[in-house]
Amino acid sequence: MREDWFAGGGEMGALMRATDWSKTKLGPVEQWPRSLRTMLGVVLRSRFPMLLWWGPELLHLYNDAYRPILRDKHPASLAAPAAEVWAEVWDAVAAMAKSVQDGGPASWTEDMQLFIHSGGMAEETYFTFSYSPVPGDDGQVGGLLNTVQETTAKVQSERQIRMLHELSARATEAKSEDEVYRIATDVLSANELDLPFVLIYALDDEATRARLVGVTGWTDYDGPAKPARVAVAADGAAGWPIGDVVRGGHEIAVEDLAARFGSLPAGKWQARPERAIVLPLVHNARSTPHAVLIAGVSPHRTLDDRYRRLFRATADQVTTALANVHAYETERKRAEALAEIDRAKTAFFSNVSHEFRTPLTLMLGPTEDALASPAQALSGEALHMVRRNTLRLMKLVNSLLDFSRIESGRVDASYAPSDLTAMTSYLASSFRSAIEHAGLVFDVACEPLPEPIFIDSDMWERIVLNLLSNALKFTFEGSIGVAVRWRGDHAPVCRRTSCLTCSSDSIACRARSRAATKARGSAWRWCTSWCGCTGGRSRCTARSIGARRSRSSFRAARGTCRPSGSSPRAPPSGPRRRRSPTSRRRCAGWPARRPTLRGRSQRPQRRAPTRGSSWSTTTPTCAATSRACCASATSSIPRSTARPRSKRRGATSRRSCSVT
Fold this sequence. Notes:
Blueprint: H1 2-5, H2 10-18, H3 34-45, E1 50-54, E2 59-62, H4 82-85, H5 90-101, E3 107-118, E4 121-135, E5 141-150, H6 152-171, H7 177-188, E6 198-203, E7 209-216, E8 229-231, H8 242-248, E9 252-254, H9 257-261, E10 275-281, E11 291-297, H10 305-372, H11 381-407, E12 414-418, H12 420-429, H13 432-437, E13 441-446, E14 453-455, H14 457-473, E15 479-484, E16 490-501, E17 509-514, E18 524-529, H15 532-540, E19 544-557, E20 567-568, H16 581-587, H17 626-630, E21 634-635, H18 651-655
Parallel strand pairs: 12-20, 13-15
Antiparallel strand pairs: 1-2, 1-5, 3-4, 4-5, 6-7, 6-11, 7-8, 9-10, 10-11, 12-14, 15-16, 16-19, 17-18, 18-21
Helix pairs in contact: 6-7, 6-10, 7-10, 10-11, 12-14, 14-15
């Protein structure tokens, strides 16, 4: 009969059948009240976690489904008093049990937080349970039925999802990496149960040093576990293994923090973390981690797979925010570059229109006079003026075509051994009268070179003339100098001026000039000299470009070799013949017309540029052909603020580089 009372109870039924109940406070089974035996049969046969407390001491009787809730308290908890089994949480639940035991109504508690002893730690758990009275044979409350469900995973998962959702939502507000770290710190600091402390270290571009950029939980701590800067190559055995994480690219769990760093701060629940996990933050823009996230493992949780997924999800959220900021910054720079290009294009076409209007206006007057005359014919000086301006228009058109070829990367240099000293001196001599007439000192120091230098003479001519033209236009006082010196394996040409500043951080050479204190025009003026030869021709002619304040330099390499893609050219044996406009048109690289196939276009025939005329003894043309002919500058300020025309003689030649 005794075996029938515990029948169908699974492992707990077998354990109860094997127990000598006479040695417990419940006494022999034969003496148990009928109500106890009946209720115990219901509990043992139920698949829902149930606990039956019986008697004044609330002795434990439970089924198989309730066993996991006891952790390591089973089987010692069988027939033991509730106050002893749940000593660590009895203060929180004793009042509810006492109320039902004294005849009160059944209780109901949802997701109650309890820290129960398990495996040597106070484990964070959550339970939804109800205390219901169980009548005895005498009609009084003989015990309590505790139906309970552990909701620890549900509560922790909901808390973690809220944190990750808030982190994702607020990260969209970040516009810089510092804002990402600040937002991550604010959000993660609110979840101390899962993340007792967090340290975020940002790596430099070389991934050799890490800088602390975010802290949670340890704001008042200042010890060896929170260094402001960390050397990535440092030994991870004495500190955080940041170097191992950076090199390996995977997470590393760090054990026994007290032995590694000494005493650490206690958290909100008066428990010190003993473990931590170090995770890399890697986004697509970099092959190495951008930062490292160090998160403390809660002393109230085991580091299982579910807990590890939280750390990885947190690291992924911060990484995504950093990637979004990087994309935003890239797009912002791209928009600024496009806006700058648009402004430069507007200024460029404005100057092109101005420069084309000048020769057309000069041609229109004689043409109208000729049409108004009885003969309706051009002759004499009027005919020469029309021809000069026609040639000027042709040169402008050729320069624009040259510009388009530079932009499309279809410029071919023709190298030939040249006497760089003689050529540079000859080109510089054409500026001496204009520079000295402007009251400036002109110093030409071109030293003889031990061997010829392979360059494209046309491109070299345009480079030197462009530099000197800009120096003349934007230097109001002081000196201008040109120097050619032999420097090891290179022969650099330098142009220096006391009022010119050049920068080589882009294709353009930017010149900044400041008016004298006695005020010639506006106090400050910015000018931009778009030097197409610097971006295109200098890549073909000069092997490298360098600049510093008040000095620009180009270096041409020695030797007989030439860059790939260039074509050799024999040195000129005699005076060069001035080509006809038609020949110049061919030399300018005008494409031959070719039929267009359906579905795709065929590139026109590329022609290598050839020299069409002798070296110019004046400066190249105007601002309109800026990058194309490497001549002048476009102003980024309104015309109303431009420097007024000087009344001094020679000012016209300084302000304009046109050739009529």
